Amino acid sequence: MFPGDLVYIRERNMLITNSSQVAIDLLGKRTRVYSDREESWTTKLCGGERIITFFQHSNKWRSHRKIFNEVFRRSTINRFYPAQYAKVLDLLHSLVATPEHIMQHTMALSQSLMYVTLYGLHINYDDPIARGAAETVDIFGRVFLGGFPTLERYPWLRFMPSFFPGCGFKQIANDLGKKLDDLDILPFERAVNNLKTGTGTSVIAELVLRNEEKPAVIKIIKEMGTASLIAASDTTMSSISSFLLIITLHPDIQVKGQAEIDRVIGRDRLPTFEDRQSLPYVEAIYQEIMRISPPVPLGISHVASEDDSYMGYHIPKGFSPFSLMLFDVKLSMFLSGCTVVPNIWAMNRDPNLYSEPDKFIPERFLDSPSGPFKSVNDIYAYGFGRRVCPGRYIADTTVWLTIAYVLATLDLRKAKDNEGNDIDIPGDFTKTFFRHPMPYISSILPRDAQARDLISATAELK
Ligand code: HEM
Q1: CA-wise closest residue to 436 among 260, 243, 179, 253
Q2: Which residues bind heme (predicted)?
Q3: Does 338 appear as a known binding residue?
Q4: What pLDDT does residue 274 have?
Q5: How far apart (Å, rounded) are the C-alpha atoms in residues 125 and 334?
Q6: Could you give the CA distance from residue 119 to residue 192 in angstroms, rounded to a whole number?
Q7: Atom from ligand 1 closest to the CA of residue 227
Q8: Of all atoms in ligand 1, which is nearest to the CA of residue 342?
Q9: DSSP code at position 47
Q10: pLDDT at position 319, please?
Q11: Which residue's alpha carbon is at the smallest distance from atom 19 of ligand 1?
Q12: CA–CA distance, 180 with 303 (Å, rounded to integer)
C-alpha cells in the first residue's frame, strides 16, 4: 500500500479509497461489512426510498437486486441485442442530422433503450413520458446528490410546513416525489396494457404476468423500472458522449479504429456483437474511455456496517466521538457507519498501473499482459462488491456497440468557421457527480458514400 491509498477524514467518519487494491480488498472482498449505503433525510423525503441505489444492505435490497439480476444478467443479455442495434443506428442518424445536439442524442439513446428493452415502448425524445422522465432524472441528480443541507443538519424541519423559514426544500421534495410516481406508473401501465390488449409484450409485462398474485413483487418490478431509467440515463450518456468528444480530439486514433474495422469486417456491413473478440483495437478504445472518463468519478459511497481493521488501521463503524464536538455534524451520521468513497477517478489514474495516466492511449490495453478483453467485472467504472452496477452488461454492450458503429461509419472532426479555420473544442467536462462533456460544436459526417448507404440501407431493415 502507498501513502494516500487510504485517506480517513475523522470529522466526517469518511474513508476515501484512492487505490483499486484497497477498494477490491474492502468493498470487493469484505462484502458483508461494506455493502450498506448512507442514510439521508433528503432521500426519504423525496420518495427516493423506492430506488435500490439508496437502500440499506437489507432484505428489501436483496429482493430488488434479485429482480435486477434476473433482468440484466449476462447469460440472457443477448435478448436486448436487436434493440441495441436499432437504437444505436438511430443515434448515427441523429448525429449526422444535427451534430450540434450531441448531448441530447446520447441521452435519447440511453433512455429510449431502457424504454424499449424493459417496457417494449418505442418512445421518442419528445413523447410526454420521455420529456417527464428526462426532467425527473435532471432534478433527481441535482437534489439527491447535493442533498438538502439544512434538512440533513436539522432533520426535525421535515415536520414543519413549507412556508416555515428554511423549509423551501419541502416543495421541491413534494414535486420530485410526484414526478417519481409518474415515472413509476406511466410506462409501467402502458407496458401492461399493451400485453393485455395484445399490442405487444415486454420484459416488465412478462414479469408482471408471472407474478400476478403477488402485489409485493409487482411493486418491486415497477420500482426496478424506475431505478433503471434513472441509473441508466446519465451514466450511459456520459460514456458515449465522452467517447464522441475524445475521438474527435484524437483523429489519429479514430483512423486506427476505422482501419481495424475495415480490415476485419470490410465496408459492406456494420459490426455485430459476434465481431467483438476480433476487434482488439476497438476494445482497447472502449477500455480506455471507461478508464479515463468514468461517468461517476467518485463512485457511489458504501457504508461499513461493522468495525473493521485493514493493514493495521482501525475503520470504525460508529461515529468518532471527536467529531461530536464539531458544530457542523450531520445528525444522520449518528445512525450510520463509516462512509467509504471509492475514488474511481484516482484508481484509474494510478501512475503505478498506467503510465501518463492523463493521456488517452488505447494501446496501453493492447500492450498489457492481460490484453484489452478485460471482464466487465474488472472495470472499476462500474463499482465494487455486492453493490456493483447491476446494469453493467447492458451498459458494456451498448457503449461498445456505439463505439464500433461510429468508427465503422462516421468521421468526427473539428467543425470549420466561415473562413475555413478549425473551431476550437475546449474539451471541458462538467464537475458534477455524473461527469460528462460540456456541449461543443463539431463536424460529424458519414465517412463516404458507402458508409452513408450502409447507414440508410440498414435503417430500412429495422
Ligand atoms: C456506462 C454506464 C454505467 C456506469 C458507468 C454505471 C456505474 C455505476 C456505479 C459506479 C454504481 C455504484 C456501484 C457501487 O456502489 O459500487 C452503479 C450502481 C447502479 N447502477 Fe449503474 N452504471 C451504468 C449503467 C447502468 C444501467 C444501464 C443500469 C440499468 C439497469 C444501471 C443500474 C444501476 C443500479 C440499479 C445501481 C445501484 C445498485 C445497488 O445499489 O445495489 N446502471 N452503477
Answers
A1: 243
A2: 389
A3: no
A4: 98
A5: 43
A6: 8
A7: 35
A8: 16
A9: T
A10: 57
A11: 389
A12: 25
What is the percentage of the chain residues whose pLDDT exceeds 70? 94
Amino acid code (one letter) for 363:
E
> For residues 50 and 34, is the Cβ–Cβ distance under 8 A?
no
The answer, yes or no, to whether residue 198 has pLDDT greater than 80, is yes
CATH number of this structure's domain 35-299+343-461: 1.10.630.10
Q: How would you label 222-246 residue by residue, b for 16+ Cβ within 10 Å and e otherwise?
A: bbbbbbbbbbbbbbbbbbbbbbbbb
Residue with cell 416543495: 171
Buried b (16+ CB within 10 A) or exposed e, 59-92: eebeebbebbeebbeeeebeebeebbbbbbbbbb
Q: Is residue 335 predicted with pLDDT exceeding 60? A: no
Q: How many residues does the chain have?
A: 462
Tell me which residue has cell 465496408. 267
Cβ contacts of residue 299 below 8 Å, gap of 6+? 341, 342, 343, 344, 383, 384
Domain locations in the chain? 1-34+300-342, 35-299+343-461
Ligand 1 contact via 383 beta carbon (within 6 Å)? yes
Handedness of CA 36, 288, 73, 102 (dihedral sign): positive
Q: How many other β-carbons are positioned within 10 Å of the β-carbon of residue 435?
A: 18
Q: What is the mean pLDDT of residues 135-160?
A: 81
Residue 461: pLDDT over 70: no
- Backbone dihedral angles phi then psi of residue 348, each to the nearest 5 degrees: -75, -10
Quick one: average pLDDT of 103-115? Answer: 94
